[in-house]
Amino acid sequence: MTRRDERIDSDVRRVEGRAFVLLKWGVFAVLVVRWFVLGQTLTETWDFFAVWVVASLFEYFMYALRGVPMSYPVPLNRREQLVFLATVPVVTGLVPVVILHLRQALTGWGHAFGIFGRTYIAMLAMFALYRAINARWERRSLE
After folding, report:
1. pTM over cut 0.90
2. Which of 23, 54, 85, 128 has the most CB atoms around it within 10 Å of its CB?
């Protein structure tokens, strides 16, 4: 029977983690180039986008399931957490509106508010789900 070397296992996990981060942000960079430099649409890049979204959401929810705070590695007090939770969805909602405005693809204020609202609500829902999963982990770990 062979023994596993913990140091090697730790190094393998560290390398795989860094490779994942490189792959995730590399795919995102490819998407940005294809969308903004090459002028391709989401329907033309759905395969890369799907891989990036699945990897990002998997990472996001695995952090929640493991009890990692949303602002890790920066510790936030209660007030700072509320500011974080209030500003990030707003910024996330404004980004697609600004991009569409710069590409002159907005059809009016209703279109802009619709895009902002959907993005804002989706981000709030993700934050609420993250917080609920994280709170469940905290309760379970204290028992």
Report:
1. no
2. 85
Please state, in angstroms and as integers, the Cα–Cα distance from residue 24 to each residue in 6, 27, 140, following that order: 27, 5, 31
Q: What are phi and psi of 25, to 5 degrees?
A: -75, -25
What tokens appear for 78 in the block? 């209660």
What tens digit of pLDDT does each residue of 84-113 get? 878 888 998 998 898 888 888 889 999 999
Nearest C-alpha neighbor of 7 from the set 73, 62, 15: 15
CA pair distance 36, 33, nearest whole angstrom: 5
Q: Which helix (H) or strand (E) holds 43?
A: none
Half-sphere exposure of 136 (CA within 13 A, CB side): 11
- pLDDT tens for 50-88 read 998 998 888 888 888 887 777 666 677 878 878 887 888
Residue with tokens 């602002």: 71
Judge contact between 59 and 24, C-beta under 8 A.
yes
d(CA 102, CA 96): 10
Distance CA 132, CA 118 (A): 21
